[in-house]
Design brief:
Layout (H helix, E strand, L loop, with lengths): L2 E7 L2 E6 L4 E4 L14 H23 L3 E13 L7 E13 L3 H15 L1 H8 L3 E10 L1
Parallel strand pairs: 5-6
Antiparallel strand pairs: 1-2, 2-3, 4-5
Helix pairs in contact: 1-2
Length: about 140
């Protein structure tokens, strides 16, 4: 896996993935940025959310659950000192579908957290305290 990040101006950068997709990152105005896009640490949170949500959807579909929507809300805390690393992270899944089995949703979230989500497992190994929960809604 490869990526490249190029400085544009001030605190703005363009990242390009090995698959050829680009994203702009920017900093706040008080740090030389123009506040026009994601912060790098926000991108990290989005990566964890995308990785874990992908797992949950994949596991639920393989178990023949009729999922119509799934989102994950992520809340994180950072250290007060430099480096301002993440210290805690909570992922709250909101799963909507028809006749969902709670045991299957619980299992999907647990498997993502413990076995499949490379992003969250990597952060947890680095000392970030990560918790998960879910709620279910009928479509």
């Amino acid at each position: 896996m490869k990526a490249m990040v190029k400085w544009v101006d001030g605190a703005m950068f363009v990242g390009e993935s090995g698959s050829g997709h680009s994203v702009v990152m920017d900093g706040p105005e008080d740090h030389g940025g123009r506040n026009m896009s994601f912060r790098p640490m926000e991108m990290l949170l989005l990566g964890v959310g995308g990785c874990s949500n992908y797992d949950v959807i994949s596991i639920l579909k393989k178990s023949r659950q009729q999922v119509t929507d799934c989102k994950v809300e992520i809340k994180a805390e950072r250290a007060d000192a430099v480096p301002a690393v993440f210290t805690k992270m909570h992922l709250h899944f909101i799963v909507t579908g028809r006749a969902l089995k709670e045991s299957q949703v619980k299992r999907a979230v647990q498997l993502s957290a413990e076995k499949y989500c490379s992003a969250s497992i990597m952060l947890e190994a680095a000392g970030v305290e990560i918790s998960h929960d879910y709620e279910m809604h009928e479509a």
